[in-house]
Amino acid sequence: MSAHIANGRFVVLVTIFIGMMFQIMPLPKIVEAWRPDWLLMVMIYWAMALPHRYSILTAWILGVLLDVLLGATLGIRSLAFSIVIYVIVMQSQRLRNFTRWQQSILVAIFICLYHFIIYWVEFVVNGVAFDWAMFLPAISSIFMWWWVFWVLRNIRRSYKVR
After folding, report:
1. Residue 96 and residue 42: Cα distance in Å, rounded?
2. Cα separations (Å) of 24 from 39, 67, 69?
3. InterPro entries of this UniProt entry (predicted)?
4. How far apart (Å, rounded) are the C-alpha atoms in residues 66 and 70?
5. What is the pTM (predicted TM-score) of this model?
């Protein structure tokens, strides 16, 4: 167990688990549409910070788990997570040098991409109608990115996650 803590895998798994819990916890109906994509933001952070360790396979596995937990069509969130994290990993060096405001805008764009991919696949598979409300989490995620980044960076530094 101490070997896992030493290299930070356990710490990262705990943050991913917490992100998953925030993603599926029930919220009042009035704020449900504005729920930030916690798990995606956690994955974006780890893909930017450690792209060699947490990338497309991790995103795919977490997408399958989220589909199972939400009772959604299996594989939709895996596809969306994988595409978004692929872009993050390919541009991780560039993204790390942006200011927090620039990063938060890009995170919102990535979350819009994530929701658009989910919509597109749901449209092809189930014929769902387009709803602009699917982009509301991107707006709330702009403001939550600062907090997510700060918390995860402090965790990464204090536990020396490499």
Report:
1. 15
2. 9, 11, 8
3. Cell_shape_determining_MreD, MreD_proteobac
4. 6
5. 0.93
Instruction: Write the pLDDT tens digit of every residue in 56-102.
Output: 999 999 999 999 999 999 999 999 999 999 999 999 999 999 999 99
Provide the residue ranges of all domains of the chain, joining segments of one domain with +: 2-158
How many other CB atoms sit within 10 Å of the CB of residue 94?
Answer: 10
Q: How does DSSP assign 57-113, residue by residue?
A: HHHHHHHHHHHHHHTPPTTHHHHHHHHHHHHHHHTHHHHHTS-HHHHHHHHHHHHHH
CA proximity to 37, closest of 141, 134, 142, 119: 141
91-115 residue pLDDT tens? 999 999 999 999 999 999 999 999 9
Measured CA to CA, the distance from residue 160 to residue 5 in angstroms comes to 9
In the numeric block, which tokens belong to residue 82?
A: 């994988």
How far apart (Å, rounded) are the C-alpha atoms in residues 103 and 70?
28
Locus of tokens 């600062």: 146
